[in-house]
Target: Porin family protein
Amino acid sequence: MKNILIAIIFIFTFHSVNAQLFTKEKITNNENFDKPLLSWGYYLGFSSYDFNFDYNEDLKDIHVKRNVGFNVGLISNLRINEFLDLRFEPGLNITSRDLYYDESYFDGTSFSSSDLIREVKSTYIHLPLLLKFSTKRLNNFKPFIVGGFSTALNLSSNEKNPDDNANGQFRTKSNMFFYELGFGIDFYLYWFKFTPTIRGVFAINDELIRDEDLNSPWTGNIYTMKTRGVFINFTFQ
Model:
């Protein structure tokens, strides 16, 4: 009898806890937040940019040291339906990368230690147009994936600089085009919606401006040089 009573108490307790944890209705914050046709916000975040190289000859890879960059921008959101939004997220991305060349690139020519390193600074005005595909809202959060295309203007490209690597200037193109893929979660808080996202960006066009010397150790062996990177952004709406 005692065992039966303990079993009944255990079953009742388990049922009660299970109901509270998994079936209890929670308070819904900002229940109508996503219903307006247009909404606005801003984001802050970090980035890590890299280069993807294709080479003309089989020499040692150019090593890219990635540095943490900073992102800031605005968001305009057009609601298409419950699960689909069109987003425009203009922003400013500031970053830098260091390129380390192997000595084999300078075979037969004299060089100094400074010739083996090139710093590539980038200040992008980033203009992405994205589609956001969301799941159904679950209490106060909603996962989603996002993808689209973007263009960027690099204010630090040195594209118009007449000096090249022979004078210590590594040059890149001003206008870039990317495709982007990512995911995130909307958290509906009491006063606003908070959204952390992770997004990858991948350049479509070659970014390199080549030196005047076709056999330049810095650019002669590079067939294409394309930016790729990862954004971690925190959005407030």
The beta strands are 38-55, 63-66, 68-79, 84-88, 91-100, 117-134, 141-154, 175-188, 193-203, 222-236. Residues 1-23 have pLDDT under 50 and may be disordered.
